Amino acid sequence: MSLMELQPWDYGSKWDRIVAIGDVHGDLDGLLRILIGSRVIDGTGAWVTRSTLVVLVGDLNDRGSDSTSVVSFVMRLQQEAEANGGRVESLIGNHELLAAKGDYSYTRAVEVLALEEFCYDQRMGLNAFYRGASPYAVWIRNRPAIVRAGDCLFVHAGLVDSSRECHPDWVNATVASWVASFQGVADEPAQETFWLVEGDGNGPLWTTGLAVEAARPRHSGASVEAIGRVLDTWGARHLVVGHTPTRSIDYLIAYPHPTYGEAVAVIDTGISRWFGGRLSALEIQGGSFAPRYFERGLEELPLTRHIRRVSEEERGEVSRRNRKTHSST
Questions:
Q1: HSE-CB of 149 using CA atoms within 13 angstroms
Q2: DSSP letters along 150-166, please?
Q3: Sheet containing 152-155, strands listed edge to edge, beginning at the edge strand earlier in sequence
Q4: What per-residue confidence (pLDDT) applies to 7?
Q5: pLDDT tens string 245-268
Q6: Is 225 exposed, middle or buried (0-12, 13-18, 19+ CB in 10 A)?
Q7: Which residue stretches of the chain are H helix?
Q8: CA–CA separation, 85 vs 300, rounded Å?
Q9: Does the N-terminal peptide bond of residue 256 adopt cis geometry, omega within 30 degrees of 0?
Q10: Is residue 10 classed as helix, strand or coil in its secondary structure?
């Protein structure tokens, strides 16, 4: 895909079921258990449902040790879902943004070592995976920040009152442009749009205004009334987000939200083993919201080892093809 081949932000109401999954943070085994438990894939990793939309709300990477394998798997699952009457959408989160900048502060050493030999164009290792023009980097910068399906808005961290002034298509395109500039393949967008990606700001990837905590930042623009206005503006009834783990409620899905009621669901339940939270998904069907929880397991699934191997082989092939292309020109 080119820089601006983002899909329209509204995915319609045709889905029989929506499965929303919080921040995976490099836990491939956890993600697979959620997808199997949600009857999205079977034990071989094959897509087994129709008319189902899976929404991952961002932060596929960092903290866990399988970030790059998670990204590779989700990329492949998107293609398989589309071929079988379903869809997978993975929103961009603040940790994909950090990686696009070359900030690997939260990356495990085992992943740094695993990608030492990966190269693409003039980049090596993690920089070749997350930045530049590799297939993975291109995929990351084309992730949307906001999507709507049925009467639900999905975004990584949240939406504040000022978001109403911006059309979601513009938000998605502008965030993609910022990611491309961080990756070193495009110029910076206009500085007045930086609030969309500003670290610890009130943009859609960073705001903590919807956190399920006793103390939230003041003046976050996320009052009950403000959330209602945002939803009304964009024709939705519910806002589904991740970003802030629900540690204060024992890593349960926060729906209804203790402050915002049924208008907001926070689904970051510390899925990654790094947090020690819960494996979960929010299933939306026929207008009802059902939190689902799944067993983590003492040992990883054979499927996890298989997909990790496939991802490693795929990276090697991508790297070899790129070397061959450059050596022949």
A1: 27
A2: TTEEEESS---GGGGGS
A3: 146-149, 152-155, 238-241, 264-266
A4: 67
A5: 999 999 999 999 999 999 999 999
A6: exposed
A7: 28-37, 67-83, 94-100, 109-114, 125-130, 135-141, 168-182, 224-233, 302-327
A8: 29
A9: yes
A10: strand
What's the pTM value of the predicted model, to 2 decimals? 0.94
Angle in degrees, CA 150, 156, 158, rounded to 5: 85
Amino acid letter, 8: P
Is residue 65 within 8 A of residue 109, CB to CB? The reply is no
**What DSSP line would sit under 247-295, residue for residue?**
GGGTT--B-SBTTTBTTEEE-----STTTT--EEEEEEETTEEEEEEE-
Q: What is the pLDDT of residues 44-99, one digit of tens each?
A: 999 999 999 999 999 999 999 999 999 999 999 999 999 999 999 999 999 999 99
Shortest CA distance to 78 belongs to which of 39, 47, 49? 47
45-64 in b/e form (b: 16+ CB < 10 A) is bebbbeebbbbbbbbbbbbb
Q: Which residues pair with 292 in a beta bridge?
A: 281
Q: Which amino acid is at 292?
A: R
- Can you give the pLDDT at residue 220? 56
CB 6 within 8 A of CB 142: yes
Residues in CB range of 179: below 8 A, 6 or more apart: 92, 96, 97, 100, 140, 141, 197
